[in-house]
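user: can you give me the structure for this one chain? tokens are fine.
assistant: on it. calling the predictor now.
[tool input]
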Amino acid sequence: MPAPFRFDCVFYYCSDLDRSIRFYTDILGFQFLSRDAVARLAVDGVLFELVPFSGEHALAAAGNARLCLRVDDVAAALAELKGKGVRVHPPEDKGGGVLGRFQDPDGNEVCLWQYRKV
């Protein structure tokens, strides 16, 4: 019988831990939990960690992992982020919903998703 898997966290590598903590708490409103070698934050009950990278990690920017946050109104959320100085991409209609995208200070992509009302 395989060992049971349990969710632990989602994490992004970052080059400047203080800058990333400010972005995720001040701009996105994540809750700061703790900091030692990594920073731990929470969003909607999910543990989100910021992990300082060394040269060996090369920031994993070429990977395909994304943090996706559900919102009620992508256009309004993108406008609010733009007002806070975040460079955002225009919303995209994806059939089942609307996708918004922006990057954190290290270029990690963060997505916003608005489900289509049926």
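assistant: here you go. The chain has two helices and eight strands. The first strand starts at residue 10 and ends at 14.
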